[in-house]
């Protein structure tokens, strides 16, 4: 089969889906249906109902990926982040997850995750330059 390789500087969503579709088919035939579900734990400003932070996660292949965690700087140190994480762990247990994983930067919250019982399983040095991208997990079973 002949193929042409072309650079797309600002790839469109349609181009992304053209790459993703055969990958998803391959994953389905080898790893089974991941039947992923997303959820969010929202921190809302009581004055205007605006979302000001929270946690966004995705359950896939019996693992919970914590994709985003954000607590406004003025609210840090009050246990809100820990409450969000415990709530996410409860969701993971209810969905019979094996564990939870997440990514963070060295300048974000690695100590916070260690304090909550997460262990580092990988790192990418100098990403961004001068810092490290860290990968953490917590087994639930």
TrEMBL record:
Residues 1-141 form the N-acetyltransferase domain. The keyword rRNA-binding does not apply. Keywords: Acyltransferase, Transferase. InterPro entries: Acyl_CoA_acyltransferase, GNAT_dom, YpeA/RimI_acetyltransf. One of its GO terms (molecular function) is acyltransferase activity, transferring groups other than amino-acyl groups. SUPFAM superfamilies: Acyl-CoA N-acyltransferases (Nat). CDD domains: NAT_SF. The keyword Magnesium does not apply. Signal peptide: none annotated. It comes from the Bacteria. This is GNAT family N-acetyltransferase. The lineage of its organism: Bacteria, Pseudomonadati, Pseudomonadota, Gammaproteobacteria, Pseudomonadales.
